[in-house]
Amino acid sequence: MRVVLADDSVLLREGIARLLEEAGLEVVAQAGDAGDLLRKVNAHRPDVAVVDVRMPPTHTDEGLKAAAEIRERWPETGVLVLSQFVEEAYAVELLAGDAGGIGYLLKDRVADLERFVEAVRRVGQGGSALDPEVVARLLGRHRRDDPLAELTPRERDVLELMAEGRSNHAIAEGLVVTDRAVEKHVTSIFGKLGLPPTQDDHRRVLAVLTYLQA
Amino acid sequence: MNLRTQLWLLAALGVLLAALGSALLLSSDAREAPVWALASPFMMLSFIGVGLFAWWRRPHSGFGALMTAVGFVFFLSAPMASDTPALYGLGYVFSSLYLGTIVHMLLAFPEGRLDRARDRWIVGGVYALVLGANLVLLLLDGPLEDDSHPRNAYVLVHAPGVAKVALGVAEGLGVLLAGAVIATFVERWRAATAPERRSLGPVLWTGTGLILGVGLSVGLDLVGAGSTVALVPDLAALACLLALPYVFLLGLGRRRWFAAGAIGSLIQRLSAARRTGGVREALAEALGDPTLRLLYWLPRDQRYVDLEGRAVELPADGAGRGVTEVRAEGRRIAALVHDAALLDDPDLVQAAGAAAALALENERLGAELRARVEELEQSRAGIIAFGLAERRRFERDLHDGAQQRLVALGLQVGMARAKLRDDPSAAGELLDGAREELRQAQQELRELARGLHPAVLTERGLGAAVDGLVQRATVPVEIRCMPPERLPNAVETVAYFVLAEGLTNVAKYAGARHASVAVERVNGHAVVEVRDDGVGGADPAAGTGLRGLADRLAAVDGRLEILSPPGAGTVVRARIPCASS
Predict the structure, then answer these.
(1) Least Cα separation, residue B523 to chain A (angstroms)
(2) Is the pTM of this model over 0.95?
(3) Tens-place pLDDT, residues B230-282
(4) Is residue B26 within 8 Å of B81, Cβ to Cβ?
(5) Residue stretches of chain B with pLDDT short of 50
(6) Which structural domain range is residue A54 located in?
(7) Domain B3-256 of CATH type 1.20.1070
(8) Residues whose CB falls within 8 Å of the CB of residue B245, separated by 6 or more in sequence, listed in order
(9) Residue B411: which of A54, A59, A110 has the nearest Cβ?
């Protein structure tokens, strides 16, 4: 899998590059700002771009804008956005598109190598990765007549992992249950929340996200 | 020869010529000679006397000179009384010249200058007409007067027909010019402010009567009305002419009388005025100038404010406004901004200001208070804005600094953990890197915390905190002076930030080789100073740092001063009120 990295901190960029290389991914280019990133994505057409939100020149949301542009111009390239903080609004903005291949994670997550590499791979393969903190905040929101209250604790766990963008298989591994059991939970959750069932992982994330946002 | 002597000489000359004129009249066998022998010197000396008086009182105005000139011009027609034809003709040519001089004088009132081109055209026209018409009649043997007169000694061509036509044309032009003069008077009256009207009025209206009378008389002659009908405007014009110098004197007197009354009623009004702004109304009414404005002096800020406490600039010279300062016990308390016409009467405005001084001082205190409130509100808004900017700066610093380092630290620990079993020495290296990241993150957090509020400042006081600042400075810094005792908390904090910001600027912009700091207690103030020998040219309006400082200072009633001439170093100095304990 081929990766382009963008972060204005050389130190961190090198660290992440080393980590991904050791995990067997190929970092084909690194960029220090959004313009540089777009040029390198255009040149290399990687499977995934890992992008910091704040970059020169304004140090505000260059990464988010660049992500949107990459999704539009090179839909086959996935974008994983890293940030020092996560906001639900940005998450919804990023994942709103129909197509998969998008992720939004706290920068701290790089410390958990395996999960981070898995998220990069998932986005590179057209899946989604949403930070557990965003999911927790969306789930923790208080609602009147909350259908989430009808979920069993196990179903809630499954919903959380599903919202993060994981496949049934990954969820099963994470919870140490069989794939069949996860499938049953998913069907039950969609039933209780009144969502139309779907097999596509990204569409599933989108449906859950839309539901949680409403 | 000084002005006074010159004026006396002119007066003597006037008396001499008047006597000469009378003698000429008395020796004449003209019918009304005895009457004119009295009236003519009276008129002449009236204009000369009052004219010289006005000249003496206001030597810079040309008006007195013009009025004097009218008197002397009367004399030029005196030879008309002679029975000698040559002299008679000479007098005849100049017999109407006084009309030109009077129109000149009236249009130039009160400054004695013709400022507008149109006025100059009118005056020039009248002069040309009154001289030209008489000359033509004389040369062409036209009808000179109804009365018997000596033989016309200057006939060039005998053409009474042509002369008659010329006379008609001249009379027509005369009526037009009289109309133009009266129109100008009306126009000036309408444009005049109340104080201007007070000084213009008598002269302007008498002048109108005069010109109207002359114009009508000429007009009646033009349409061929009998001389009996023309007698009415003739007499009216004569009355106005006789009255004109005295009316001018009356105007001067009226202003005196007005002034006395104005001050009397002002004092009454002031004792009745309790409302805010009542003083302005009372003064406006007393001086007859509704446009009058009051500005109050703030000695601390060295500037004027209005009643609301807002800063106000004095009007520029030539803006048509006069400014009169009001002082009490030698201190400046206020300024009256009034109609420039009132500058003719500086005594009146001064007296009114003096009468109102006490009430003005009261209002001044109110205005000062409002100015202070305004200032505090602004500084409060400034502090809030400054606080928000500071928060953004801290967020940015945290984000780019410590947070970034902690992410890298996590990354290195994660990678070390992954290598722990297979490659322990690589894991060790990663952990060394992690420890370095940790150290740097800690240092950045410490710096940031100190920027928020250095603990040593609260615990050990300004001296110790400044020691720390000086040690971290990028150039050698000398501490020139530091109070040994602790100052109030708020004073120490603001002083610390003045010094910190000052030294930061020295490091960033000054290009200095050496700097010094000082904190000194002077007259109930802590004077805090940062000096450097750098490039100077610091602009307090640019950059948030210095502006933020000014707001912080304003919150504790302090003042910031920046002296930074290009090329000569910078002094940042703050004065913070700090009573001795």
Answers:
(1) 48
(2) no
(3) 777 878 888 888 888 888 888 777 766 667 677 777 777 777 766 666 788 88
(4) no
(5) none
(6) 2-130
(7) yes
(8) B46, B47, B49, B50, B51, B67
(9) A110
